[in-house]
Automatic annotation (TrEMBL):
InterPro entries: Porin_dom_sf, Porin_Euk, Porin_Euk/Tom40. The keyword Membrane applies. Its main location: membrane. It is found in: Membrane. It holds the Pfam family Porin_3. GO terms for molecular function: porin activity; voltage-gated monoatomic anion channel activity. GO terms for biological process: response to bacterium. This is Porin-like protein. It comes from Brassica napus (Rape).
Length: 276
């Protein structure tokens, strides 16, 4: 694929990942295995709100195709097939869920040195259609997305964004919710390895005059241990400790506290991911 501006979904993604990725208030255990034939198998057990769930995910790569199959506790099977370079600089992603016969979806992604375009549609009569376009370079990009419901002939969404990315920092502004909200974020890396960073994010909802300001950070204690923290103006404080027990195998402990209601018990989550 080309070294272009990336997908519209990439705008603000680094800031979002720092504030949300690996934060978990449930109990999760995951183990992965790999076979010599190239099949990857991942089993996950999850306890959320006192409810137990489990799923098994397998992945198989063959030439320019990747097959992903996920089976959950409800015996629902989700299959995703990704084809790369069917046409130059093009990726196709097809997915469907069994027994839900109306869940099929096809997405086409086209990558150019100065533009990225995607189109996705549900494989059914009167489908939902999503289109995104991003223009620019890996340093600065402008993007927009729109969703259209062919049954009601109405737009389900239309958003726009801009992103500026440098080796040690990235900033983004996203106009979302059909123009009813705006989110601005700035992330600055504190070291060359990008394992320590600071972040500020401002979100405003125009229809409700709601403002949310969040600050967060990531710090590498050593090459195997990192800590993260975040705090918003509503008093929600989150903290996370992640340790690499052995290469690729992680144990993560995270918690969330409402500093304006300290009488409430903090929510604590534990995640263990084992990979060979």
């Amino acid at each position: 694929m080309s070294k272009g501006p990336g997908l519209f979904a990439d705008i603000g993604k680094k800031a979002k990942d720092l504030l949300t990725r690996d934060y978990n208030t449930d109990q999760k255990f995951s183990i992965s295995t790999y076979s010599a034939s190239g099949v990857a198998l991942t089993s996950t057990a999850l306890k959320k709100g006192g409810v137990h769930a489990a799923d098994v995910t397998s992945q198989y790569k063959y030439k320019n195709a990747v097959f992903d199959v996920k089976i959950d506790t409800d015996s629902t099977i989700l299959t995703t097939v990704t084809f790369t370079e069917i046409l130059p600089s093009t990726k196709a992603i097809a997915s469907f869920k069994v027994p839900d016969n109306s869940s099929g979806k096809l997405e086409i992604q086209y990558f150019h040195d100065h533009a990225t375009v995607t189109a996705a549609a549900a494989l059914k009569q009167n489908p939902l259609i999503d289109i995104t376009a991003t223009l620019g370079t890996p340093v600065i990009s402008f993007g927009a997305e729109a969703g259209y419901d062919t049954s009601s002939k109405t737009f389900t969404k239309y958003n726009a964004g801009i992103s500026v990315t440098k080796p040690d920092a990235c900033a983004s502004i996203i106009l979302g919710d059909k123009g009813d909200s705006i989110k601005a974020s700035y992330l600055h890396h504190l070291d060359e390895s990008k394992r320590s960073a600071g972040l500020g994010e401002v979100y405003r909802k125009f229809s409700t005059n709601e403002n949310t300001i969040t600050v967060g950070g990531l710090y590498a204690i050593d090459h195997t241990t990192t800590v993260k923290a975040k705090l918003n103006n509503n008093g929600k404080l989150g903290a996370l400790l992640q340790h690499e027990v052995v290469p690729k195998s992680l144990v993560t402990v995270s918690s969330e506290i409402d500093t304006k209601a300290l009488e409430k018990h903090p929510r604590v989550g534990l995640s263990l991911v084992l990979k060979p």
